[in-house]
Amino acid sequence: MCSNSCCPLASYPGQPGSGLGMSVEDGGTPGLGRPRQARWTLMLLLSTAMYGAHAPLLALCHVNGRVPFRPSSAVLLTELTKLLLCAFSLLVGWQAWPQGAPPWRQAAPFALSALLYGANNNLVIYLQRYMDPSTYQVLSNLKIGSTALFYCLCLRHRLSARQGLALLLLMAAGACYAAGGLQDPGNTLPGPPSAAAAGPMPLHVTPLGLLLLILYCLISGLSSVYTELLMKRQRLPLALQNLFLYTFGVLLNLGLHAGGGPGPGLLEGFSGWAALVVLSQALNGLLMSAVMKHGSSITRLFVVSCSLVVNAVLSAALLRLQLTAAFFLATLLIGLAVRLYYGSH
Questions:
Q1: Strand spans (E) along 81-232
Q2: Is 25 inside a domain boundary?
Q3: Which of 198, 219, 260 minimizes the C-alpha distance to 127?
Q4: What is the per-residue burial (b if ≥16 Cβ within 10 Å, else e) of 27-63?
Q5: Closest Cα partner for 345 from 215, 107, 159, 203?
Q6: 276 three-class SS
Q7: Model confidence pTM above 0.90
Q8: Taking a C-beta distance cutoff of 8 angstroms, is the pair 283, 105 a contact?
Q9: Residues in a beta bridge with 322
Q10: Consecutive sets of 10 residues in the chain, 345 residues long: mean pLDDT of each?
């Protein structure tokens, strides 16, 4: 049983290249000084803030109520930025290149990671055809359960009843927030504020949509746990592993962008806000890879869930949306989940 977990905001992970090692979920590495604990805390807080800022920043990019650039352009540029940052890190010596021949054979497994992430990103688009946005937002929280399932099966971790209850609370918090955590002052309809902009849309989900959603949740959990497994098993610097992953990511998204048919050019419609979206997402991707290598997929789930609070506060401040009782209930559930999962037993 995973009974000796400690809070991710109070523990620093093991060193790179230590195999599977001890992650945050296993109790971390004891006896490390406060500077490393502080860096780990700062990294998680920054990642939470960047996740939460993503949707409000996208909303600030809108022109006449629409995103003026191709979504595939933003994804491709984000992957390219991550790739360049990793290459720069290796070139300037921030992370040492491994001795001996280049470990190119160890790059191949990351192709599957890139394929899984690419499939998931495209499934999100197709899902909107078979269900309304509110239903998608609520049901997509099932990926928390699928991630926990693969985490136990693939990494051979067992969650205690207390930890399982904490993850159920995370799912409930996400569903609660998606069902009505924010509201446009001029809109009395339930669900996300954007859902009412074009008039009421009835709640609905087709059988095909439900099957695709289950597939989406399974791929989401598998991609996260599979990447964590690769990161921890390979005795390679994190920057080099990221270089492998994002090389495949760039190639995949370049093909998807080129095959997407006619549309705006790669940089057409980009503004300062759009550039900030790309940069923040790239930096957050690098932070998340560190969480996956030194923490766990479960840590990532808590970061994403806590980012809902940041998202709501920024939406209220920048977009003048109102916080509802559902938001405060979701915040309470997230706090309880963190206490249950990482608190002393």
A1: 182-183
A2: no
A3: 219
A4: ebbeeeeeeeeeebbebbeebbbbbbbbbbbebbbee
A5: 159
A6: helix
A7: no
A8: no
A9: 183
A10: 38 38 42 73 92 86 83 89 92 74 82 91 78 76 93 91 94 85 57 47 76 93 94 90 94 87 80 91 92 91 91 85 88 94 77
Bin 269: left if φ > 0, else alpha if -120 < ψ < 50, else beta.
left
Q: Is residue 192 part of a domain?
A: no
Residue from 219, 231, 334, 305 nearest 23 by CA: 231
The amino acid at 179: A
CA angle 143, 258, 288 (to 5 degrees): 35
Q: Tell me the residue type at 183.
A: Q
255 in any annotated domain: yes
- Please tell me whether residue 323 adopts helix, strand or coil conformation: strand
d(CA 15, CA 21): 8
Amino acid (one-letter) located at 285: G
How far are the Cα atoms of 11, 26, 163 from residue 6, in angstroms, in the given order?
7, 8, 12
Give phi and psi for 131, each to the nearest 5: -160, 160
Q: Domain residues for 307?
A: 48-62+71-94+104-184+203-262+279-342
Q: Could you give the C-alpha distances from 10 to 31, 34, 164, 336, in angstroms and in order?
A: 12, 9, 21, 17
Question: What's the number of domains the chain is made of?
Answer: 1
The position carrying tokens 């998340």 is: 288
Q: Count how many residues are written for the chain.
A: 345
